[in-house]
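Example record

One chain of 198 residues, shown exactly as stored in the release files.
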Amino acid sequence: MSEPVDPLRHCVAQLARLPGIGDRTAARLTYWLLRQDPEVADEIAGAIASLARSMVRCSVCCDVATTNPCRRCADPARDGAVVCVVERPQDIVAIENSGGFRGRFHVLDGAISPLDGIGPDQLRIRELLARLEGEVAEVLLATDPDVDGDATALYLARLIKPLGIRVTRLAHGISVGTELEYADRSSVARAIEHRRDM
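Predicted structure tokens for this chain:
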């Protein structure tokens, strides 16, 4: 007969699966939850469980949203001639918070990284290329300023330039090696304002 599951260890193990959370932090969070009213743990568990049920992928930009198309893609006030390509959905928040961009977005869901076994086929590049027919005049590549982000931007530029579409890249202002979601607002705004052709 198997031993019963220890709920404390099970909770620590599950929390440790989250990115950036090691065993110590997971244990600290577990003990914090134990000190709270039971409703707190129920509310947190409910919010996590509802994510899978309530979030969808936008069929236009591939962002995670509560509607399809998402509110940004459905907004007629946004400039459809400029598409900003980002690696992750959270990068959109960094761009939006800068206040310097009113175009549309496209989420790749990662970057080309041969060492991690991620090639172009694992990214949402086909979906991007399908969007470029029509009103798009510029693609702003806002991938991270690191080796993988630069490789992805270069790959995309080589695909898009022959289509006669302007390809730009965020200007420096965001430190090399910094993930876009952690960059401060003014750096992101400056990088958008001074974007350059590729």
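Notes: The beta strands are 56-57, 64-65, 79-86, 103-107, 138-141, 166-169, 196-197.
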